[in-house]
Amino acid sequence: xxxxxxxxxxLLTPLVLLGMGEDEAKKRIYNHLxxxxxxxxxxxxxxxxxxxxxSNALRFALLDALCQCGEETEALELWxxxxxxxxxxxxxxxxxxxxxLSKKEGSSLLNMQxxxxxxxxxxxxxxxxxxxxxHLQGSxxxxxxxxxxxxxxxxxxxxxxCIARLLKEEKVWYVRLEVIQAIGALRMVxxxxxxxxxxxxxxxxxxxxxxxxxxxxxxxxxxxxxxxxQLTKSxxxxxxxxxxxxxxxxxxxxxxxxxxxxLNDPSPDVRLSALSTLSLLRVKEIDKQSVAELIEKxxxxxxxxVAITAAYLLLLQGRPLxxxxxxxxxxxxxxxxxxxxxxxxAVSGAYGVKLSLFALNESEDPYVRANCxxxxxGQRVHLNAACDALYALLxxxxxxxxxxxxxGNPLFRSLAPSRVKHIQQIPNYPVVVDQLTRLDxxxxxxxxxxxxxxxxxxxxxxxxxxxxxxAAAVTLLQEGDEEGLEAVRxxxxxxxxxxxxxxxxxxxxxxxxxxxxxxLKEAYPHVDREMKLHILEAIAHVHDPEAIPFLLSVLSExxxxxxxxxxxxxxxxxxx
Length: 576
Hints:
Blueprint: H1 2-18, H2 22-34, H3 38-51, H4 56-69, H5 72-80, H6 84-87, H7 90-104, H8 110-122, H9 129-136, H10 141-151, H11 157-169, H12 173-185, H13 192-200, H14 206-217, H15 225-232, H16 237-250, H17 268-280, E1 285-286, E2 289-290, H18 291-298, H19 304-316, H20 320-330, H21 335-346, H22 353-362, H23 366-379, H24 383-396, E3 402-405, E4 414-417, H25 429-447, H26 453-463, H27 470-475, H28 482-490, H29 497-509, H30 514-523, H31 529-542, H32 548-554, H33 560-574
Antiparallel strand pairs: 1-2, 3-4
Helix pairs in contact: 1-3, 2-3, 2-4, 3-4, 4-5, 4-7, 5-7, 7-8, 7-33, 8-10, 8-33, 9-10, 9-11, 10-12, 11-12, 12-14, 13-14, 14-16, 16-17, 17-19, 19-20, 19-21, 20-21, 21-23, 22-23, 23-24, 25-26, 25-28, 29-30, 30-31, 31-33, 32-33
């Protein structure tokens, strides 16, 4: 009987439509969409539009139904038949783009799901929340990790509840780290005690403890003295370390006296954090006690990372023992400690100029010389010697991958050979990190108007393929320095097409330059599919409204991945 009733209703539908008005037909279409029956809405819409072919309202309703149903090809064909005014209607264009993204949600291909999730999240539209919830509860760890990271852009309670559940249940290491970071970014203060338990637990690994400390510190608006006392006197080293980080984060000078006992703490991590806090806050005296004298009285620390940080603090206070200790560390037989000391000089301002020049001329370690060169460039002294040292390293070490290393102490970022491992989230991740590191160095040379900066930049663009994908753009890229980007901008008119294209990618992804987007659109038809993806990502990143007609043309291409990225870019360009 049920099947007979369904058949009867299907046979009756055309008869009903013949007797109903245009408004009633539109209402029936949206009623189907309201109950998430997109197939029924499409059937109603097709029949209604046959009866009222000139109706703009029915055409719009059918477009909506087709997009929600994932019939993107038919939706595009229907859009082509619209009037010019309708074609430029922002609601319709957004609808078309979401139709493409909605279809790819159900794809079984991991690559497609990744790009769909990224593309949808970049739109910052509320319609992405159900997709994020789906992946937060999904079985794929990579997609779960990415969904956690992207959820930080939204403050939706449903997302927070899912993340709180993952903190208890998540077993995959890198997803768990993302969950803890997200809790801090979303300021989920009801989980403070859970984070403290993670920090205090003796079996918590160092990386997880560090992430938990950072997440917890981000939740503090102010520090009650009683709470700081409890933290500094805790029998758990992690909580004592937390007290230092919280004081640093809030610039809580009134509680600095509580850190003095921690200079003699049995845990090297706590001693390191206490010294870092005193260095960052430039503290010379607490309750008439000289911090420098307390450190000198204790003597050299047996842990090199702590000893270098102590020497750095003494150097900032103009104490001879600071320079003496730092000079000894620059000559260490272990490369990582030499480089850490040189990185400390790079952030010591005018206090480190003398030692930086010494190491630049005397050290045989090229990375020590590079770090010291950056220190001199920062103070705008001995520019020729510093620039020559950096340029020599860039030209001699083309085959070596680089990174910024802050393993010993996050205060000191040292140029070093890469130890970065491949990760699932970003293809060719070590190469991506290397490229961004080299761009930092090239930017430093450009800022001081080094005569060979342009040559070095052109060599970099000629010899390297641009490998920053959409995932990397989310997790890695930062605003570029305007002066440093001038050298790149000058290459937008270079006769070599590859150099023009690479420069345009940098200017859009790092510099948000609309002029460079024109170069990308001109190059698009002549490049391979991977480069087309990079171009679409760059256009999305720069939010170029003039790229809308170009992106609409890409929606008609046969490659699903290109259409997905173009759809996301279209929504972003429409929203700005």
